[in-house]
Amino acid sequence: MSVARSTDPDRLGFDPARLARIDQHFGRYVDEGRLAGWQIVVTRRGEIAHSSTYGLRDREAGTPVEPDTLWRIYSMTKPITSVAAMMLWEEGRFELTDPVSRWLPEFADARVYDRGPVTSPYTVPAAEPIRIWHLLTHTAGLTYGFAQVSVVDGLYRAAGFDLTVPAGADLTAATRTLARLPLLFQPGSSWNYGVSTDVLGRLVEVVSGRRLDQFLTDRILRPLGMTDTRWWVDEPDAERLAALYAPNPTTGQVFRADSIGRAALTEPSWLSGGGGLVSTAADYHRFTQMLLRGGELDGVRLLGPRTVRFMTRNHLPGGRDLASFSPSGFAETVLEGIGFGLGFAVVQDPVPARVPSSVGEYYWGGMASTAFWVDPVEEVTALLFTQLLPSSTYPLRSQLRQLVYSALLD
What we know:
It is an enzyme of class 3 (hydrolase). By secondary structure, this protein is of the alpha+beta class. The chain has helices at 16-31, 78-90, 132-137, 151-158, 171-180, 196-208, 212-224, 258-261, 281-292, 305-311, 322-325, 396-406; strands spanning 2-3, 37-44, 47-58, 63-64, 71-72, 111-115, 122-125, 245-247, 254-256, 278-279, 296-297, 300-301, 338-340, 345-347, 362-365, 371-375, 380-385.
């Protein structure tokens, strides 16, 4: 185990002995063979109160998790793409109520699934256009093929959208194919986790006139000093990339999932704004600190503070939570007491989910069990990195909250 603290936790209101429970608890997952390794960072008021690593980034090679380990962050890409879109919004390039078809005309005649099997679905016209705020809030009616919950999910898989996209498709081609598939529901009428942020990434390209990777690098990653965040890992850094694992359904012991994990070692055919980035704890820490500070870090301002506050309020109609507004129940979050903003889940009431947190806390996670949260009330951020598919295997995120908030004493 490696533990490094850059400040005195007592001064930040944490009990050091209670913070040590984090390493003891999550260390057991590794010792029992249920995780290969992990990295955790907890901060308060912009200072690191706890930073630790444990286990191996690659069990087979015997290489340990180190501070500069590279992690597939998957859906933790979504908040970065959402910030990119809102940077353009701040420039007056669009309004949140604008139809997406203004920039992506392939969505002009969207249709909605009504009934029938995958082989012969019956659809109806969309009652209103997909708007940009629908993409940011996952209320557009788009889905994921790998969810395997609805007939529309099956139509996505039939079109080549599962954990990947149709072979050779770039972001432009993938988006055009998605636009031809029926929506799961009428835009704005429900919430469903899906490819909305990938379409949003294409929108960023068209509005800005630049490829998504170029825009993110020039406007977000390089200005924030996120120099290790990238779309794939070249050979010189391949050894730093953590291996991807999945649990044996009988024993719970992890096994290597190279069939999925090796994709991070080659340039992708498409730039997934919803799940394509690889990053480090240090880089994503800088992203969360920018959010905590209201859109600015070290003199670099990406967003205005009112924009960040606006993004991290619940935007679901009627102030509803995900439990009452989601048909499938599939997400990188619990649903009870949780709203959704412009790119983030937002805590409305921590009691229904039975997990300690602050009202107004916002967060997200990735399918390999990574997670982050930003608590503007307590001025706390937390990061969890590991590489275990799927993220629902263990309650790692809720357990980290238990351990962090029980260690906060002031």
